Amino acid sequence: MNPILVIFSGGQDSTICLMKAIAERGADKVHAVTFDYGQRHALEVQLAQEIAREQHIASHKVIAVDWYRDITHNSLLDKSMAISREPGAPFPNTFVEGRNALFLLTAAIYAKSRGITELMIGVSDADYSGYPDCREPFIRSMNATLNLAMDCTFTLYAPLQHLTKAQEWALADRLGCLDYIRTRTLTCYEGIPGDGCGQCPACKLRAAGLAEYLRTKDQRR
Amino acid sequence: MNPILVIFSGGQDSTICLMKAIAERGADKVHAVTFDYGQRHALEVQLAQEIAREQHIASHKVIAVDWYRDITHNSLLDKSMAISREPGAPFPNTFVEGRNALFLLTAAIYAKSRGITELMIGVSDADYSGYPDCREPFIRSMNATLNLAMDCTFTLYAPLQHLTKAQEWALADRLGCLDYIRTRTLTCYEGIPGDGCGQCPACKLRAAGLAEYLRTKDQRR
Predict the structure, then answer these.
(1) Cα B41–B43–B44 angle (5° rounding)?
(2) CA distance, residue B142 to nearest chain A CA (Å)
């Protein structure tokens, strides 16, 4: 198996990606990169480091991006701004312009320097907030652009691309890590790990998906 | 005229771009962004600041990218490494992986936050070192990726794309800034402004282009 670099935030989605990569390739082939970019919940980075240690992956790199807050404005990077969605706006004000492009580009530069050309990211277009950089056309275009930029054949994997949140929990369950994902990861916009604050859009999405999965699982019994 | 953001290093190419944008739109419509990414010649950033001031452009932003040297290795970021080109290598070891993609992405994030959707970059595929991120297919792909990433219609201009170095000097002459470009900009890998060290690949390319332009100009008289 080839080595793979997982873009790993310590949240639910990217931790499921990490566990999937480990299940498929073995922990010694799995590398991870986490971005410290001034996100609301700095605890995210710490949880990512703990999970990476516990899972004995081959390497874990934290890259600090200092300038994000200086060049764009949104409620994920500015704690004094309330999280909201304007009527008619295509997505909530938590959207960080260009974030997934920056993560993928930086990860690809780092990966190439280590001889790795496969990357994984936990984006999904099915069940989300409508962020444009979570959609499949963006991921495909980004893959082509990275190849042209660095004269290299990268392969970007987005295994959650077409999964609902309920299907994601089903995947976690198949991978044997449902409880681990539920208790150890951070998705909440308020920075509360596990089941979170229960009130923010990320918590509601996560809880609704879990409830839906557990309901269908019960019905199948 | 719409405002435009020029990716501006203080080198010959991007300064010609800046002067072209000023000639076409007026200095009050021209914004510039310079990246301080650990390049060999930190003086470049200082020269860029001086030129921006002298030309009275609308704004000039310097963005520090601290992590570049930490995730990839090349002779432009590592002064202890000799500049060379391995036999058979597609480009010299001065190539900074992903650099133009990073500049364009970061500039686009910054531009969008200021309501600017037109960007200019001084890449050229005609006369260069063979860097993949200077070629037109990369620029077009990057434009499409930026639009998808941020749900926005950016326009990337690369006015030097198909010019030889001699044609670039001709453009500078038409813009009335040949001497300014010749004396005030820094292209030399050794960090010497103006005519530079005369020995590195960048100086040789620059000098050969200027000599060719001046020869054809003389012949036309």
Answers:
(1) 80
(2) 6
CB B107 within 8 A of CB B34: no
- Edge-to-edge strands of the sheet including B155-157? B59-64, B30-36, B4-7, B118-120, B155-157
Chain B from 86 to 145: CB within 8 A of any A CB: 90, 97-98, 100-102, 105-106, 108-110, 112-113, 132-133, 135, 137-138, 141-142, 144-145
The answer to whether the beta carbons of residues B149 and B111 sit under 8 Å apart is no
Which of A133, A151, A154 is the best substitution to test chain B (most B C-beta atoms within 10 A)? A151
Helix A12-25 / helix A43-54 crossing angle, nearest 10 deg: 20
Q: At a CB cut-off of 8 Å and minimum separation 6, what does A167 contact?
A: A126, A213
Element (H, E) at A21: helix A12-25
Q: Is the dihedral of CA B165, B168, B173, B179 positive or negative?
A: negative
The DSSP secondary-structure symbol of B215 reads H
Q: How far apart are CA A5 and CA B178, in angstroms?
A: 47
Write out pLDDT tens, residues A65-83: 888 888 888 777 777 777 7
Q: Are A3 and A31 in contact (CB under 8 A)?
A: yes
For A156-215, write each residue's pLDDT tens digit.
999 999 999 999 999 999 999 999 999 999 988 888 999 999 998 889 989 999 999 999
Structure tokens at A59: 């390497």
Residue B173 — φ and ψ, nearest 5°? Answer: -65, -45
ipTM of the complex: 0.91
Bridge-based pairing of strands A4-7 and A30-36 is parallel
